[in-house]
Amino acid sequence: MIKTILVTDGENRSTLAVTRSLGRKGYRVLVSGKKLRNISSYSRYCSARFVVNDPLHDADAYINEIVRILKQENVDLLIPMTDHSVFLLNRAREILPKHTILACPIEEKVNYISDKSNLFHAAKRLHIPTPKTIHLNGPEDLKSYKNHITEFPVVIKPAHSKILDGNRFISGSVMYASSLDELTNLYDTRPSLRYPSMIQEKINGPGTGLFTLFDKTRHLALFSHRRIREKPPSGGVSVISESVPLDKSMVENSKRLLSEIGWTGVAMIEFKRDNRDGLAKLMEINGRFWGSLNLAITSGIDFPYLFLDYLNGRIFTKPNIDYRIGHKLRWFLGTLDLLLIRLKNSDSTLNLPKDAPSKFQTIVDCLNLFNRNISFDVIDINDINPFITEIRDYLSNLKFRNLKTHF
Q1: CB–CB of 198/157 below 8 Å?
Q2: Ramachandran region, residue 68 (left: φ > 0; alpha: ψ -120 to 50; beta: rest)
Q3: Residue range 8-25, pLDDT digits in tens
Q4: Coil, helix or strand for 405?
Q5: How many CB atoms lie within 10 A of CB 28?
Q6: Superfamily of domain 132-201, CATH level 4
Q7: What does the alpha-carbon distance between residue 140 and residue 253 come to, in Å, rounded to a whole number?
Q8: Model pTM score
Q9: What is the rounded distance in angstroms from the CA atom of residue 357 to the CA atom of residue 337?
Q10: By three-state DSSP, how is residue 38 classified?
Q11: Pick the CATH number of 105-114+203-407 from 3.30.70.1110, 3.30.1330.60, 3.30.470.20, 3.30.70.1050
C-alpha cells in the first residue's frame, strides 16, 4: 500500500498540483527541487522538502541524491515530473530501492513517444493526421531539402525536448523560421539541431490537449482543454486554458498511438485543429503530468488520485469522463508576462497567429481576477505560501527577464 510519495521538480506548477491533490487525500508527500524554497515545497501539503542537484547540469549527482532520499524516507512511490527526470530515473531503475514504484513506463515505451521523429513516423503509419514534416538526421541534411521548403514560417522541432550531452542536457525547444536564411542560421548555430530534428509546416488553429490515464489498450480517465492564451503569444506555454468536450477523433487517435506500445499511466496528447481542413493534427505526446494539470482537477478529474488508485490495483469498469465544461484556469504571473511581452514588442515582431487577441484584450485578460468560472493555477487562499514564494522569485528575477518573443 502506497503511503509515502516523492514528487520531483518542485519548481513546476504540475508538481504543486500533484502535491496538493495527494496531500489533501492524506498521503505523506515529499518534494525535491533545485532550491529548498519552491512553490511546491512551501505548500501546506508538503510533509518534507529536499534540495537536489539540477538534473539538467549534473545527472549523476541528481540520481544519487534521489536514491538517498528514497532510502532515507522509505518512499513507496516516486513521481518524476519533467522529461529529464523521467529520462534519468528510468535509466536508474536498477539502483532504486526494491519497494519503490517508479511512476512511469519503462524506458523503451517512454522513448517511443518522446522521440518526436519516431512518433510522427508512427502516426503516419497509423493514418493519424499530422503537419507536413521533413525529417533530418543532422544539419548536413538541410542542403538536400532547401529547395523543397517554399512556404514560411516553418516550425523546427528537435526530436527530443531534452538531449543528453555527456552529463548535461541541451534544451530542445521549438523554434520558428520566417525565411530560408533564418532557417539556415538556426541549423548553423543551435546545439540542439546537431541532433535529429524535424521541419514542419505551421498549423494555424486552436490548440487542444487530450489528457488520459491509460492502461495498455484503453482509456481509464479522459479530459480535454483548449489553450486560450499562450506565452509567448506565437505559441508556447498555456497561461489561460479552458475545459472543453472530448473530441472523438482525438480520443480514438490517442488510443491507437498509445495502444501501439501498451502504454500504462498518464499522458498528454497535444493536437492543433487546422483551420484549412478542420482536422485535429498531432503535435506531440508527453508521457507525464502536464503544466495545466490543475484545470483537470478543478474541473472534476483528479488525475493524481486516480493514478494512485490505478497503482493500488483498482479495477476501472468504465472511463472517468464526467467533468465541468467551460471552466478556465489562469496562471496569474504567466498572464502578466504575456501582457508585458505584448506591450514591449510590436505585433509585427511577435509572429502572432491570425486569431491572436488585441493588446486591449490581453490587458482585459490580465485584469479579469474575479470570475466564478475561473480557477488559478498557483493561487489558493487555503494554501497561499506557494503564491507568495512564486511572487518573491518573480520579483527577484525580474531584472534578468528578457521580454521579447521568447524567454
Answers
A1: yes
A2: alpha
A3: 999 999 999 999 999 999
A4: coil
A5: 19
A6: ATP-grasp fold, A domain (3.30.1490.20)
A7: 34
A8: 0.90
A9: 15
A10: coil
A11: 3.30.470.20
Q: Which residues contact 384 (CB under 8 A, 6 or more apart)?
A: none
Q: Which residues contact 143 (CB under 8 A, 6 or more apart)?
A: none
Strands 207-215 and 264-273: what pairing?
Answer: antiparallel
Ordered by start, the domain boundaries in the chain are 4-104, 105-114+203-407, 132-201
Class of domain 4-104: alpha beta
- Structure-block grid coordinates of residue 116: 518526436
Are 4-104 and 132-201 in the same CATH fold?
no
Q: What are phi and psi of 6, to 5 degrees?
A: -105, 125
Concatenated DSSP letters of 97-157: -TTPEESS--HHHHHHHH-HHHHHHHHHHTT-----EEEESSGGGHHHHGGG--SS-EEEE
Percent helix, percent strand, percent coil in the chain, to nearest 5: 35, 25, 40
DSSP 8-state class, residue 43: S
Cβ-based neighbours of 173, under 8 Å, separated by 6 or more: 158, 161, 192, 406
How, if at all, do strands 4-7 and 77-79 pair?
parallel
* Encoded amino acid at 350, one letter: L
Q: In the predicted model, is pLDDT for residue 45 greater than 70?
A: yes
Please choose, from the candidates 312, 253, 311, the residue with its C-alpha nearest in 3D space to the C-alpha of residue 285: 253
- With vertex at residue 376, the alpha carbon angle to CA 22 and CA 326, rounded to the nearest 5 degrees, is 100
Cβ–Cβ under 8 Å, residues 11 and 34: yes
Contact 199, 141 (CB under 8 A): no
Q: Report the pLDDT averaged over residues 171-179.
A: 91
User: Do 35 and 11 contact (CB within 8 A), yes or no?
Assistant: yes
Which cell numbers in the block locate residue 108?
523503451
- The H or E element containing residue 63 is helix 59-72
Rounded distance, CA 318 to CA 309, Å? 14
Contact between 365 and 357 (Cβ < 8 Å) = yes
Q: What's the average model confidence in pLDDT over 193-219? A: 95
